[in-house]
């Protein structure tokens, strides 16, 4: 019987399609005392690189995963246990972990399949994780993004809530027609989605353009919204990197797109080849260019932001939390707004996922 | 079935129409005669292949066509161009290689085209036209335009694989196509009586499941009648026809050809068979037109040709930047 | 929604979606339907390797068989393109270009230029290329250089299902004549392909793999072979960057140059015969433009200057394999001035 005090740190599942990852660098050593939230290691997957934060506290007894070795999701990376636990017991846990790897039983996790709903005459793709009762959380991505951008966020939240992530019209696997591309149209879609999943009320989380969309939903149907978490939302102040937005909409080659994407992150190495490839494949789909250009008309008026999100929030009584990446170069941190800062660029839900998850949790309870 | 047609029926061409076809034939004749002169003086670059003597064929066929219809021509294409409505001034400028030419000076005599008039181009490749015409006929059929497509080709091309394949394909696909074999007796310097295995090119029609007729190429009215029937057949959806036009060309294969391989057939033809002389004789005898009317056309055409040459000689050559343009729509 | 389908299915899907979208698109070639005039079933073949199967029933009157007369029906495709249709004609094997090449290189390719910019010839000619099927000398060639050489033509040669669908849709929507070359050994290859229509622009190379020790340019089936070689090279500590030009005309030379400026070494893998090949073309261009960046002579891995043999042992020697690529890379890496 394995001692219950022995805990394993395992390869996390970041995103629905992640099967394997590699530890690039360990930040802790055997013998260190670790606290929940400490940075343990940098991990790289095919799609993204990120930092593994400690999910527990304790004494790091053994590092099992070598750097540079590809391991399946769920593989044991390290063992944490109090000093009283004998070395022999630790060794047997390590041996078990290695046997588990050999057996190949890991990594066979079926990813939850996206579903499609007909809303306002459009097909809307979404993924649901978690089976908790109570008001669900709905995650709404930004301009040019999709439901996969919540890859570090949806899983942890789903431990306590039912969490839906959807693709807005014109994005991801949803239909590419955006109609007039207005905030109203997008808000309608989200409201229609709430009806579709039978949510009388929901906690809405929106990033960038998605932030303005959920604000518009709350303005229109305040009784449907339990809380709003706005992550670097559009519509706070006039400033924006309009050149980025227009460039993104218009780029049709890797050469045009790659340099732009660096502006999204505080750490430009986040722009992996896979990220660029995935975006190029999206942008080539019929209808995407038209959709993005229509949405630009909603986002921008010349070089300034056209949306007024504070005005939308004026009549909203549900709790509102605003979180922003201090190094955001796309929508700079606005003055005079009550917000929490995290260490990240515009894609804060990818670069500072742990902190963002905690902020969302404080809003949704 | 092969046969020859009577030349007595004028097929309801009124005076205006008769004058128009005369104008077309006269324009072709004077255009070619003038190019012959100018070429000899050394001003015209490259190769030209003249249609003088053959005017009745192009005119007789094209008088039944409109903008829905397409024609493909040969290296000896000036006559077909004029008959299909290409501007002679633009043609002359093209022959001189000037920027004001139909093809901005980039095609030359052998590649004059005007797609807006359904003229798919003179063609430097013997037998290049018939497959293209199958394609135009297919497009007309698919798009329901009612248009027909005509491939003019010579006795030389009648032996080319592309021509034979096109005859077959046109029947198999039941295309609104007309194949006009202009047999002027010579494929370059070799006589067609030797190089064509049968006496008549029209014999090949039966081999490919379509009607074939032979017409006297010096007789506008004969060509006009046969072409009218073929065009009507095609428009009705009854499929392709092969028309063999027999005549002679007044000049060499190309300008500069010494024509040592020929007898005295040109002098004979100019004297006794010439299509313009015969046309004039017939319409003035029947009273459909007067000599004065025809003379007036002759004068107008002379003026047109003179100014075409003058303007062509005065026109600029294409700019150096034109070397690199028009290869692709986008690259 | 992306799902895994084969190269063959991806091509069929591109044709299907474009025919649905644009009524001017017509498809024809030898046995593209199969069965015309015969007592048995129509759509009996749907193309000699089944690529066009199913289209006949969906688009009545727009998918046709042809007699075996390439010069007539390829010429007809070209003529029809000048007359308002957007034909996709099949030249069954690239080896057959000899019987219809005039229509392609002297007519279609030159209309726009000769006619002073007035002609638009939106024709696509699909054709099979490449060795490996034991189809012998007259059915196994890689004659892409012949088409690439001709101004006025565009040439696309996809290496995987995703590229096949996107490039064919691009070809059909392109207003210039396009030779769309399908490698016959790739029809069974599967890959993720979106259900929706999409366009991959011509003249944009794909960086299949990143690496900083050597640039490998490969096309068609050779992309997979290069990928195999790269895995083995990685184990030996050599990281190869693999570039798939996707289209040979227009060619994305810039991406190749950027890569060589970084790696300093170039290996070009091309299944065709060596003289006047894509390998020599790309090699010469890179030598000219990036001479200062090169740390070793450019390596060209090609077939030999012979027809493709029939005997399986000989054909396998003809086709460049991963070991030959690895050898070329090591020659470049081990080079010292």
Topology:
The complex is a heterotrimer of chains A (365), B (331) and C (337).
Chain A: E1 7-10, E2 20-26, E3 33-34, E4 39-44, E5 49-53, E6 58-63, E7 70-72, E8 76-80, H1 87-103, E9 115-119, E10 122-129, E11 137-140, H2 154-158, E12 163-166, H3 183-196, E13 202-207, H4 209-220, E14 225-231, H5 242-250, H6 254-261, H7 273-284, H8 288-299, E15 300-301, E16 304-305, H9 309-313, E17 320-325, E18 340-342, H10 348-351, H11 353-364
Parallel strand pairs in A: 11-12, 11-13, 13-14, 14-17, 17-18
Antiparallel strand pairs in A: 1-8, 2-4, 2-7, 3-6, 4-5, 6-8, 9-10, 10-12, 15-16
Chain B: H1 15-40, H2 55-62, E1 70-72, H3 78-83, H4 88-95, H5 129-143, E2 149-154, H6 161-172, E3 177-183, E4 186-187, E5 190-191, H7 192-195, H8 203-207, E6 212-216, H9 220-236, E7 241-246, H10 265-273, H11 275-285, H12 291-314
Parallel strand pairs in B: 1-2, 2-3, 3-7, 6-7
Antiparallel strand pairs in B: 4-5
Chain C: E1 2-6, H1 7-21, E2 25-29, H2 55-58, E3 63-65, H3 70-82, E4 86-93, H4 101-114, E5 124-129, H5 144-148, E6 154-156, H6 161-173, E7 178-183, E8 190-194, E9 206-209, E10 214-218, H7 221-235, E11 240-244, E12 247-249, H8 253-263, E13 266-270, H9 278-289, E14 299-302, H10 312-318, H11 322-334
- Total of DSSP H or I helical runs spanning 4+ residues of chain B: 12
CATH topology of the largest domain in chain A: Rossmann fold
What is the multimeric organization of the chains shown?
Answer: heterotrimer
Highest-level CATH class of the largest domain in chain A: Alpha Beta
Tertiary shape of chain B: globular
First-residue to last-residue Cα separation of chain B: 50 Å
Order of helices and strands of chain A: EEEEEEEEHEEEHEHEHEHHHHEEHEEHH
The profile of the biggest β sheet of chain B is: 5 strands, parallel
Proportion in β-strands of chain A:
15-25%
Radius of gyration of chain A: 21 Å
Query: Overall mean pLDDT score of chain B?
Result: 93
What is the makeup of the main sheet of chain A?
8 strands, mixed
How many distinct helices of chain A? Answer: 11
Strand order, sheet with most strands of chain A: 9-10-12-11-13-14-17-18
The helicity of chain A comes to: 25-40%
* CATH structural class of chain B: Alpha Beta
Outline the low-pLDDT stretches of chain B: 1-10
Q: Tell me the fraction of residues in β-strands of chain B, as a range.
A: 5-15%
State the distance separating the first and last CA atoms of chain A.
Answer: 36 Å
Give the class of chain A from helix and strand content and strand pairing: alpha/beta
How many DSSP E strands of chain A?
18
């Amino acid at each position: 019987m394995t001692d219950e005090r022995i805990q394993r740190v395992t390869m996390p599942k970041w995103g629905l399609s992640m099967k394997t990852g590699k530890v690039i660098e360990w930040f802790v050593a055997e013998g260190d005392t670790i606290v929940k939230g400490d940075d343990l290691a940098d991990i790289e997957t095919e799609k993204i690189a990120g930092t593994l934060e400690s999910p527990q506290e304790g004494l790091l007894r053994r590092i099992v995963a070598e750097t540079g070795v590809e391991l399946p999701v769920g593989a044991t990376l390290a063992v944490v246990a109090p000093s009283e636990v004998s070395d022999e017991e630790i060794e047997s846990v390590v041996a078990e972990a290695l046997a588990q790897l050999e057996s190949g039983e890991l990594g066979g996790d079926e990813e939850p399949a996206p579903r499609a709903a007909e809303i306002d005459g459009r097909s809307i793709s979404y993924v649901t994780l978690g089976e908790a009762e109570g008001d669900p959380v709905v995650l709404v991505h930004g301009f040019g993004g999709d439901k996969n951008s919540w890859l570090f966020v949806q899983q942890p939240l789903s431990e306590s809530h039912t969490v839906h992530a959807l693709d807005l019209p014109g994005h991801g696997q949803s239909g590419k027609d955006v109609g007039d591309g207005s905030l109203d149209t997008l808000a309608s879609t989200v409201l229609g989605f709430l009806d579709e999943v039978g949510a009388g009320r929901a906690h809405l989380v929106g990033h960038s353009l998605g932030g303005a969309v959920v604000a518009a939903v709350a303005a229109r149907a305040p009784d449907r919204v339990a809380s709003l978490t706005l992550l670097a939302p559009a519509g706070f102040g006039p400033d924006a990197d309009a050149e980025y937005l227009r460039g993104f909409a218009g780029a049709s080659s890797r050469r045009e797109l790659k340099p732009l994407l660096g502006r999204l992150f505080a750490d430009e190495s986040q722009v992996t080849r896979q990220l660029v490839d995935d975006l190029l494949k999206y942008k080539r789909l019929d209808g995407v260019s038209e959709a993005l250009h229509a949405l630009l008309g909603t986002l921008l008026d010349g070089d300034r932001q056209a949306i007024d999100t504070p005005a939308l929030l004026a009549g909203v009584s549900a709790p509102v939390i605003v979180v922003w990446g201090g190094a955001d170069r796309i929508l700079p941190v606005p003055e005079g707004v009550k917000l929490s800062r995290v260490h990240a660029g515009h894609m804060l839900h990818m670069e500072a996922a742990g902190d963002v998850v905690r902020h969302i949790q404080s809003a949704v309870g | 079935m092969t046969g020859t047609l009577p030349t007595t029926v004028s097929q309801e061409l009124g005076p205006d129409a008769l004058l128009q076809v005369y104008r077309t034939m006269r324009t072709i004749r004077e255009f070619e005669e003038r190019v012959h002169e100018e070429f000899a003086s050394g001003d015209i670059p490259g190769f030209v292949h003249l249609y003088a003597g053959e005017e009745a064929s192009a005119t007789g066929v094209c008088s039944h066509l409109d903008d829905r219809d397409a024609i493909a021509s040969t290296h000896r294409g000036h006559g077909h161009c004029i008959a299909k409505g290409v501007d002679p001034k633009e043609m002359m400028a093209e022959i001189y290689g000037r920027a004001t030419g139909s093809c901005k000076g980039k095609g030359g005599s052998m590649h004059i085209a005007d797609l807006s008039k359904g003229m798919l181009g003179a063609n430097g490749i013997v037998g290049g036209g018939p497959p293209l015409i199958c394609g135009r006929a297919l497009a007309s059929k698919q798009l329901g335009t009612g248009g027909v497509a005509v491939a003019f080709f010579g006795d030389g091309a009648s032996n080319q694989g592309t021509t034979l394949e096109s005859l077959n394909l046109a029947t198999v696909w039941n295309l609104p196509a007309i194949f006009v074999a202009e047999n002027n007796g010579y494929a370059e310097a070799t006589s067609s009586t030797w190089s064509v295995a049968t006496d008549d090119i029209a014999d090949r029609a039966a081999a490919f499941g379509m009607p074939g007729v032979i017409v006297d190429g010096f007789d506008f009215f004969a060509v006009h009648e046969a072409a009218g029937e073929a065009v009507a057949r095609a428009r009705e959806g009854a499929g392709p026809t092969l028309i063999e036009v027999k005549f002679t060309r007044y000049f060499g294969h190309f300008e500069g050809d010494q024509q040592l391989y020929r007898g005295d057939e040109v002098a004979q033809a100019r004297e006794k068979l010439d299509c313009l002389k015969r046309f004039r004789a017939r319409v003035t005898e029947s009273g459909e037109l007067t000599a004065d009317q025809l003379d007036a056309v002759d004068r107008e055409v002379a003026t047109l040709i003179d100014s075409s040459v003058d303007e062509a000689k005065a026109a600029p050559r294409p700019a150096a930047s034109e070397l690199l343009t028009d290869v692709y729509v986008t690259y | 929604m992306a799902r895994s389908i084969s190269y063959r299915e991806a091509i069929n899907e591109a044709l299907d979606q474009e025919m649905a979208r644009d009524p001017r698109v017509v498809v024809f070639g030898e046995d593209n339907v199969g069965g015309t005039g015969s007592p048995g079933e129509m759509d009996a073949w749907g193309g000699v390797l089944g690529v066009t199967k199913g289209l006949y029933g969906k688009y009545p009157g727009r998918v046709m068989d042809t007699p075996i007369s390439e010069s007539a029906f390829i010429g007809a495709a070209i003529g029809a393109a000048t007359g308002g249709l957007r034909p996709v004609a099949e030249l069954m094997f690239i080896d057959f270009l000899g019987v219809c090449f005039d229509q392609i290189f002297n007519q279609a390719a030159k209309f726009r230029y000769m006619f002073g910019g007035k002609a638009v010839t939106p024709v696509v000619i699909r054709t099979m290329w490449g060795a490996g099927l034991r189809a012998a000398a007259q059915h196994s060639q890689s004659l892409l250089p012949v088409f690439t050489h001709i101004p006025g033509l565009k040439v696309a040669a996809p290496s995987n299902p995703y590229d096949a669908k996107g490039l064919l849709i691009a070809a059909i929507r392109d207003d210039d004549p396009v030779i769309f070359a399908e490698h016959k050994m790739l029809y069974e290859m599967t890959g993720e392909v979106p259900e929706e229509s999409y366009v991959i622009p011509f003249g944009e190379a794909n960086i299949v793999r990143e690496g900083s020790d050597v640039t490998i340019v490969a096309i068609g089936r050779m992309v997979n072979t290069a990928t195999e070689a790269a895995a083995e090279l990685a184990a030996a500590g050599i990281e190869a960057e693999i570039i798939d030009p996707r289209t040979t005309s227009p060619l994305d030379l810039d991406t190749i140059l950027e890569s060589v400026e970084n790696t300093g070494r170039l290996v070009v893998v091309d299944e065709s015969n060596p003289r006047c090949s894509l390998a020599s073309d790309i090699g010469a261009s890179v030598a000219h433009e990036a001479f200062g960046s090169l740390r070793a002579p450019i390596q060209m891995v090609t077939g030999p200057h012979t027809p493709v043999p029939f005997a399986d042992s000989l054909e396998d020697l003809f086709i460049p394999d991963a070991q030959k690529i690895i050898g070329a890379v090591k020659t470049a890496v081990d080079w010292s001035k």
